[in-house]
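Dear support,

Our group has been running a series of protein-ligand predictions, and this particular one with flavin mononucleotide is the one our PI (initials K.S.) wants archived with full inputs and outputs. We had some confusion internally about which version of the output was final, so please treat the block below as the authoritative record. The input we submitted was:
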Amino acid sequence: MFDELLIQRQSCRNFDASRTVEREKLESVLKAGIVAPSARNFQPWNFYVCTGETADKVRKECQHGGANAFLNNCPVLIAVGIRQKPETAGARPLNVTKQDFRPLDAGIAVGQMCLEATNVGLSTCIIGWMNCSAIAEILNTEDEIKVVIALGYASHDDVLRPKNRRNFNDVVKFFD
Ligand SMILES: Cc1cc2nc3c(=O)[nH]c(=O)nc-3n(C[C@H](O)[C@H](O)[C@H](O)COP(=O)(O)O)c2cc1C
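Confirmed final output from the archive:
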């Protein structure tokens, strides 16, 4: 079942504009992000669910230079923001390894949301081509907007594509 989801999840660039996303399904996608793991359980993410006029404004900021035209048919845009990190938490610096794990944490949450969307019959496309600061302004937030998740139903003629990925042996190194 789970491996089926991994194969079925693909970036949708062919949404069905006539179908809206049911509230229950939307919430299950958002909850899949909320339960994601994060460094020191900081949960750096905020999810800004945009529909209607707000989605229209956010959509425009993802379409500079003619990019992402397919978003015109997508009913829901979820902007993923990361919140400011406190300098210290308790006695130890928050980030003991000197790494800022917040983008990684947000990425894990985004991955879980995309898989849950597939699980409930929805489709997604993660959008990174956008004007992040313009979107933050639209949403009136200090968060750093990292990606936007386009969410909706795929058009009935959308097809499952084979995964075009690097070879297993190029990616994986085993050490004894
Ligand atoms: C951080 C990130 C940003 C992306 N930005 C865009 C984008 O702006 N527009 C787009 O059409 N696809 C975008 N994608 C989708 C990738 O192109 C896609 O995941 C990749 O080609 C693999 O295809 P698949 O998702 O269908 O398996 C993005 C994906 C990620 C993870």
